[in-house]
Here is the input.
Amino acid sequence: MTLTLGLQTGHESSAALFDGRKLVAAISDERLTRVKNEGGRLMDHATDAVLAMAGKARADVDRLALLYTFFPDEYFVRETWAKELERRLVRRRRAGQGAERPQMLLCNFLERLKARGKDFAKHFRRDAFLQGEGFPKATPAFYDHHETHAIAAAFFSGFSECAVVTMDGQGDWGVHHTSGVFRDGRYERQHTSDHDGASAGMFYGHITELLGFRPMRHEGKVVGLAAMGDPLPLYKTFHAALRVSGDGRTLASDFVGENAEKRRMAHLKTAIEGHSRENISAAAQQILEDVALDLVRNYLRETGLKRLALNGGVFANVKLNQRIAMLPEVEEIFVFPGMSDTGNSVGAALLDMLAQDPDALKHSEPLVDVYLGPAYDDAAVEAALAAAGLKGRKLDEATLVDTAAQAIHAGRIVGWFQGRMEFGPRALGNRSMLARPTESAINDWLNERLDRSEFMPFAPSVLAEHADALFVGVNKARHTAEFMTVTFDVVPEWRPRIPAVVHVDGTARPQLVRADRNPLYHKLISAYHALSGIPLVLNTSFNVHEEPIVCAPAEAIRAFVEKRVDCLAVGSYWLEH
Here is the structure.
């Protein structure tokens, strides 16, 4: 079997390891360094972590699937113009004037190479890279940012044929949107948006920043606020900043040419003066939804396809995904769970397989789960407890499940740390904080306990066999809802029974939990269901504000010591205050 290592370096760096066609391990650097959205280099933690999980070393790697963006600078031969650009950026930073993100720098590098008709490979110091990073037998290859987004969504959708749409802030060569077709294991891009000032991801990021939040991190707060506002006062003004092009195939705006993004930001800043943050958010969300729906609808009509795979940071917007799923042209959607750049390590490895064998991905496989991170045995848990001066009760599985369910039913917050850690932004029952969903007030005091300021309710983890009784339109997104990537309208009679997980607009963002995917978590929710008559629990990621989701036992135990949770189930051990 060929061992293929996919690497996303820099911002949201991650590593994904395939043994043949099987994805055996994937993790982002942030979970190991404990720095949110960590931007690391190749030799950083994720690379060795995925290899260790598979019992492999760098010397065992056959293929290296890499991305251009954020690649370590020392492995490129820079031309004079590139070196001068870098010097200017350094001077700007030192002068406190800010500078383009490193991604923008490399995009400029790629664009200039392309304009000169020069070969990127000639600028890559291949031998120095392989020797310097300790991959003696690996063959490296580079892949395009949006191609990696597209292939990951298409292949893991399980669809034999589908339309594929990607959308984010910006990728290689300034591309921020693509539309293409996946058929017979091959992907063909048909439409591309790379116009200045027309990026949907950057548009939403500008709004996030103007509202005082951190772009590329807090866009979810804008989604939550949007449901509380009126989009009409700002809709027309925002439409100038983002719309669909005349032919309906790409994105456009009034801002093109030199400094397009800077001028669009200034336009938005002036436009929002005197408006509430709720109305600003509502207008931004409405524009994003309308534009994306038009783009998707037009492309589905053009291709005649009914199934749709989505990827890229824009599709972290779960309300947008719901509206897309409900289009009459759509039969089913799938959103790749690692929709940010973190997931591109997976896509790069898939593209490398395709480059070696055109039929390698002919039989697409629906994603089973994303429990691709490290697991810790009881010995590791015991060591972490001892280091913290604690001693938990060791319970058999049935007693642990019953004890945790009783605690949740009694209104306590339970830290649930089990099995392999999830890959991607969502906690899906292995690194989760759990509570009963019956009290709306829990949102306020749980946010306070976790040092968070969210405007959306916490999400429910639902027994999959009960999903149709609770939510509207599940059939169009049943598979992707296993990964908490879409909202549904909650059936009206259920809304007053589970207010802690229902937003003001009557929607919820569920994780559908299957017994064959995560049997222990399914047993826990089933036990709570037997006690309460409610087939779901409130689930939020096991972390505190601005920290990554916990990875190792010591981090979960620290949260317990700090009283972020009332009880902790860590492996076979149970602790409570």
About this structure: DSSP finds 19 helices and 23 strands in the chain. The longest strand covers residues 186-193. The two ends are 49 Å apart (CA to CA).
